Amino acid sequence: MSEIHQLLKQHFGYDAFRPLQEDIIQSVLAKKDTLAILPTGGGKSVCFQIPALALGGLCLVVSPLIALMKDQEEQLLEKGIRTAALVSGTSRRESDIIIGNCIHGDYRFLYVSPERLSSETFIMQLSNMPVSMIAIDEAHCISQWGYDFRPPYLNISKVRELFPNAPVIALTASATSEVQNDICEKLNFKKGYQRFLKSFSRTNLNYIIRKDENKYDKVLQVLKAVQGTSIIYVRNRNKTQDIAAWLNSNQITADYYHAGLDNQTRLEKQSKWMNNITRVIVATNAFGMGINKENVRSVIHFDLPDDLESYYQEAGRGGRDEKPAYGVLVYTDNDIAQLEEKKEKNFPSISEVKRIYNALCNHLNIPIESGQNQTYPFDIYQFCNTYQLSNALAINCLKELEHAGFIVMSEAVYVPSKIKINFDKMELYNFQVKYQRFDNLLKIILRSYGGLFDYFVKINEFQISRHLKTDKNNVINLLNELNKLKVLDYTPSSDTPRITFLHARESTEAMYINPKSISDRKNRFKVRADAFINYVTSTNNCRSMMISSYFGEENLSSCGTCDYCRNKKKELVNEEEEKKIRKFIIDLLENNRLLQIEIYNQSPDNYKQKLAGIIQNMLEKEQLMIDTDEKLSLNKEAQ
Prior knowledge:
alpha/beta; 45% helix; Rossmann fold
């Protein structure tokens, strides 16, 4: 067994790599710069984690998503692999300790946001670290042609100069050929670099588009026809609750999820859905990142996303177990009109952006020439209420400020409480003797957690309070006192979105926002929105081919399973023949539950080409039902 296969088995429990993973890993180990385009759920993290472990040293991982950074940090730590993440809100003391440990070789992975690379101090510290490779996650963010361009990503090219022998791997789930080329150029990929692209075609994922003024009934119809767990994506928080309540009233177990919920509530809702207690989760796009549930049978879009990139990633959360799944989008003429309006509404005037910037600084009490590299908790709903602003205007102005390099917005992510003891063991013993009221607390902490003298360690104040038979708030108060006495450093948990100011506050007269940059992004948004509207409203193209073609794939063939392909197949079947095939299916399922492939194998050869379309039609008319184990059966009430 080769070293990389041993590492795969030892740390991840897999006997074999997925398609392309081993080729990508071998490319990195050969010290070649590598671009890997793998679909959602395609195992991108393994592609940089395995070669990093094989190379030794420190792997610098640049990622824009705090939730994914924290998720991967947790997973690696559970495997006994020393890993750290520097995210907005990390205290200066903890950052210094993490950086020191990275310099001295105690960590194998360091996750940072692209904005961290804007700090000259961090770049100087980074130059002393034993960086053996650099991984760029969500690499489409480095491209100005991408749908989520982040200007600080451009600093990565400077980091390359510090480590000329370290290979760079850039990973993303979706990138057009234009974006792929831009990624390679912006990262200064060296001659002989490798590009790996897994087909954007998902053979087991059936794309279905339905235009229907009564979306609720159509969603209910889909959920009755396609059993198993489901995600329903909507665009606003209130709608998540309304649809979940409506589904429950129709005897379908459902719950709602959005970024405005506190961490404990989000975890509980996610856990129930992951464990199949809740069948359907109705969510904003805050749901899905870092969540790997293989047996999602349907992903339903109740509202339109802005572009094909977003739709492809979200629909791609269905059928990761390679079994049949459905990506269903339900729309009305009004949905198309709203997306058309966004071409203008999403790009406010420079004067509006400056007005929101001024309000934001006042809201956070930041004086002129202050706030650089400072991070602030930020509740956009409270901000909008205070200044009587529409949410849409505020969000779009904040996005403009982010693109212009003034701020960085971070999603709501739960960061647990942490402590590090500053005294050595003898000093701490003497302190406990002298201050008896802290003694029991410190004993419990020392018994419950390891590494406290070397690293910041996550703690749970509630569990500590149970051991001490006291109130959680009492534990928090004692920890705050110990923090003031400098016995330990204590960082309380947080669970709010944040805004980081990359530069000191400027006067609105002095601040410059490039109008051409806004104009260019506006034009690119229009191109992407138009492409998506064309995808949704088209009645004469295979859905899978349209997606693959959009991302630059060539030599395509029809999927045979999307709504267009099935309609074409039905057109080829005359009424008499369709009756015969329906009767054959009904007779076969009279006293049986069968997989679709089992029906296919038992059918006459002249039925096989038309079978899938007719089965889908019978499912939509609720004449057939599909169970959680993918077996079809007759709905005798509908016969």
